[in-house]
Amino acid sequence: RAKHDGKGMFHFFEPSLDVQARQRREMELDLRTAIREGGFELYFQPLYSLKEDRLKAFEALIRWPHPEKGMISPADFIPLAEDTGLIVQIGEWVIREACHQAASWPGDLSVAVNVSPKQFLSPNIAGVVMSALASSGLPATRLELEITESIFISNVEKTLGALHSLRALGVRIALDDFGTGYSSLSYLRSFPFDKLKIDQSFVRDLTQDASAHAVIRAITTLADALGMETLAEGVEDEAQAEILRKEGCRQIQGYWLSRPIDARATQQYIERMRGEAGVLRRTA
Ligand code: C2E
Ligand code: MG
Ligand code: MG
Ligand code: MG
């Protein structure tokens, strides 16, 4: 459909759609370049055990410092990477780099890596993980993979197959953003998750809303009964952390502990947490 734009020009598409399509194509080309030239970076955010009162792990979060556009957040390029299939290559880099970084951390600190559905269901996922563990020297028990509930809308058989072969390696699997997606409780019975990561939307209302307490309590009770760990995402203040501790949530993650930080700052964070006693306790 031709459209007059008022400047004596005719466009054959809605200008906005045209612009969007062009931006997507441009971004796809930029993503390909970034894959080729190593243009991504990993940031890390601490996962803290309330139960043991110590640092347990870091979640690896991808960042894309774009040469012209500045830092692009994953929310702005992971969906396109997923649509184009580029996520498989990007995600492989993330797994390798995360394992490599974690292997340099002291003690038994783990790393958690986000894996998108297309990547999780790609035929060689277990091979990629095995090879990343072997070349980094990281023990499988120190790697945790995070998948979201959206995985359930695709092939259930394939998902189960991948879950079992990864767990056979000794890798742990967490269900990310729990409570926001499609999950039916029956999935929790048939899929072997090690951890439920309670979505930050449930944490946000904790200090105002009694029903938010009830939801957290129900999730932790259920997870305990199924032998799964719980972690609350998006913990921004001490009051939320205290409620979560009281409601039996095992681990927390959020700006209260730290924003995501680069690899160097992560090393410094670990050193600071170790303090003089050499224990990974929160000192502040
Ligand atoms: P996610 O896995 O649920 O990661 C948590 C997100 O919440 C991160 O956003 C983190 O910066 C943010 N966050 C952490 N604590 C707080 C808090 O206290 N308050 C608030 N408001 N936000 C907090 P980020 O880094 O922008 O990542 C967004 C999403 O992008 C991630 O959500 C994950 O789904 C995806 N993602 C990130 N890295 C990767 C990756 O390497 N591969 C894949 N497939 N997806 C990734
Ligand atoms: Mg995650
Ligand atoms: Mg999450
Ligand atoms: Mg989230």
Automatic annotation (TrEMBL):
Domain EAL positions: 24-274
Record's protein name: Diguanylate cyclase (GGDEF)-like protein
Provenance organism: Sphingosinicella soli
